[in-house]
Design a protein that fits this description.
This protein has 603 residues and is α+β, with helices and mostly antiparallel strands. The protein contains 17 helices and 17 strands. Strands 1, 2, 3, 4, 6, 7 and 9 form a seven-stranded antiparallel sheet that branches. A hairpin with a 3-residue loop joins strand 14 and strand 15. Helix 10 runs antiparallel to helix 16. The protein is elongated, with a radius of gyration of 37 Å.
Length: 603
């Protein structure tokens, strides 16, 4: 318990340390304080500008709805310490504009215009140096003449920001801010490629594997979309599209995170059943309704909802872990819960910093932990599948030898010789049935799954041979056969159980009791097959020996075949019931469903 708590503390502390370091690197350089910020809106008339309004205090609510042209004026008070290094100006404005510093023209960023046709859009972020000799201590003025006709969507904020600081620091700021997030996402991308390579060699990748890789891909795309503005830049008319992409990828990433943890950690699929599915969908959709007033609020709420739901699932799993066996990938849910809780606290304490890049680190660390756990689990599955396949091949060879064992074949041929003399038509029928059975057994031994009705046909053929060759006719009665429609089974498992029943007394002269019976039942998620054999001698012998019979070649073959087809999802029970030998096999119904061709082969 102490070791587990220490591990959780180290994991959470490590993530918190990474978040703090990234936040420190992303902190913008200290700039020259803004002494005054004013604006005025200019009414266009044709291609000329007339009627300039007086200067007024900056009002973002008015500016966000004005397309232009307009003019902004900033005054800065430069101190001696600020003037010690070359200064630069970072202008964040969704517009095409021209700028001047103390009346000296700066390089233009596009060109303002009276309408969209005459405007040339500028980049959404613009960094230029302050003219040489115009950064001495004192008051300085920056003027911008701009227009924003290229905005296709109505935004909630003008995002007009100006910062005057050391020119080198302004150039390096975006790269400092995204240094750790991009390194983290690079590790996730490498891990996702590693897991993908492992999954390519896996016989049956789980549903959670696809969700995990999708979450990794969506998270990488989200980080690229979020960092595109700072690292690459673009003309401001693309800003609305980028915001829409960020919003969609945020919703997708958080939805995939919730789906992945629910798929992997939740043994009963409670999250897919009402009212849980409706409630989760409502929670994921709630930010879109509440966040209509502000884009940042929408993205933040999506992060909070996704993290909260994921934390709920992992904590719930950690609490139930000691009550039931879990056959899912072995990433510790309490470790993941500690990481998600740390990310949730970071998002709550500093929302703006979190949605501007810190989420990338938390998402990357969470995904790195689960990717490593998933990769380890997939390697274990591949190794177990190889061992099971080798075991199945070995047991299949034993089963084929058993199907044509000399003693049974000698008895059958002796009976055939007698039938040729007394009943040639039955002898011909026996030859046909022998050919059918050997052909079906040979075909089945080359497949990992066959149609359930094909397996029943093999059993019926075998019992028909027994009925012709020996004095004791036998048959297999099936109850609920319609439930086997579209179901595939490992080849030879029912045939092996029937042969076991015949070997242990099932070929004796039948009494008034029942014959071989197969009962098929189904719950919503489980298919249950119950085979009862006559086996009167077998039951008596078992009562005299031991309540737990030895697992022979036939039982080992059945178990190996079930494990290869449905890893850790099957159950086999055997024992005496009302004087008959009973075998019950429980299978996952969804996994047993397969498409078939007209010959009953799995396609």
């Amino acid at each position: 318990m102490v070791r587990s708590r220490v591990r959780l503390g180290l994991v959470a502390s490590g993530l918190a340390g990474l978040l703090w370091m990234a936040h420190w690197l992303a902190t913008p350089p200290a700039g020259v304080p803004v002494a005054r910020r004013e604006m005025r809106l200019m009414a266009p008339e044709g291609n000329a500008r007339v009627g300039e309004a007086p200067w007024r205090s900056f009002d973002d609510a008015v500016l966000v709805g004005w397309r232009g042209p307009y003019e902004l004026r900033y005054q800065f008070q430069i101190a001696d310490a600020d003037a010690a290094v070359p200064l630069g100006v970072h202008i964040a404005l969704r517009a095409g504009f021209t700028a001047s510093w103390d009346g000296v023209a700066l390089p233009p960023n596009g060109q303002p215009g009276n309408d969209r046709a005459s405007e040339r859009p500028g980049r959404v972020d613009w960094v230029v140096p302050v003219p040489s000799g115009f950064s001495q201590p004192g008051t300085h003025e920056l003027r911008l003449v701009a227009s924003s006709h290229g905005l296709a969507t109505s935004l909630r904020s003008s995002d007009a920001r100006v910062r005057v600081a050391a020119y080198d620091a302004l150039l390096a700021a975006p790269y400092r801010a995204w240094l750790i997030p991009l390194m983290a996402m690079g590790c996730v991308l490498a891990g996702a490629c590693y897991v993908a390579v492992i999954l390519l060699g896996s016989p049956k990748p789980s549903q959670s594997s696809g969700l995990l890789l999708s979450m990794a891909g969506s998270g990488v795309l989200l980080s690229m979309a979020e960092g595109w503005r700072a690292l690459v830049g673009y003309a401001y008319p693309w800003h609305g599209l980028r915001l829409s992409v960020v919003l969609a990828l945020t919703a997708l990433t958080m939805g995939l995170m919730v789906g992945y943890f629910a798929s992997r950690f939740s043994t009963p699929r409670w999250f897919l059943r009402p009212p849980w599915s409706v409630g989760i969908a409502a929670l994921i959709g709630l930010p879109f309704v509440l966040g209509l007033a502000h884009f940042d609020a929408t993205v933040w709420l999506l992060h909070m909802m996704g993290l909260s739901l994921s934390l709920f699932i992992t904590v719930r799993t950690a609490r139930l872990a000691g009550r039931a066996s879990d056959t899912r990938p072995r990433t510790s849910p309490d470790t993941v819960a500690a990481l998600i809780a740390t990310a949730l606290v970071a998002a709550a304490l500093d929302p703006s910093a979190y949605i501007d890049g810190l989420y990338t680190i938390s998402l990357a660390v969470i995904m790195a932990v689960v990717l490593l756990g998933h990769a380890t689990h997939q390697r274990e599955i591949a190794a177990r599948a190889l061992a099971l396949e080798n075991s199945r091949v070995r047991l299949t060879s034993a089963l084929l030898r058993k199907s044509i064992q000399p003693h049974w074949l000698m008895n059958t041929l002796t009976s055939l010789q007698e039938l040729i003399e007394v009943d040639p038509s039955r002898a011909s029928r026996l030859v046909d049935l022998l050919g059918d059975e050997f052909r079906m057994v040979t075909e089945a031994s080359t497949r990992s799954l066959i149609a359930a009705r094909r397996e029943l046909q093999l059993c019926q053929t075998h019992l028909a041979i027994v009925s012709l060759a020996l004095p004791a006719p036998r048959r297999l009665d099936v109850e609920g056969e319609d439930l086997l429609e579209g179901v595939a089974l490992p080849p030879g498992i029912l045939h092996t159980l029937v042969e076991n029943g015949l070997t242990h007394g099932g070929v004796d002269a039948p009494t008034a009791g029942p014959d071989f019976t197969l009962t098929v039942r189904r719950t919503p998620d489980v298919l249950i097959l119950t085979l009862r054999t006559p086996a009167a001698k077998q039951s008596a012998a078992l009562r005299e020996t031991a309540p737990e019979p030895a697992r022979g070649t036939g039982t080992q073959f059945v178990e190996a075949s079930l494990e290869a087809a449905f890893p850790s999802q099957w159950r086999l029970e055997q024992g005496e019931s009302n004087g008959r030998w009973q075998t019950t096999i429980a299978l996952p119904y969804t996994a047993a469903r397969h498409l078939h061709d007209t010959d009953g082969r799995v396609v």
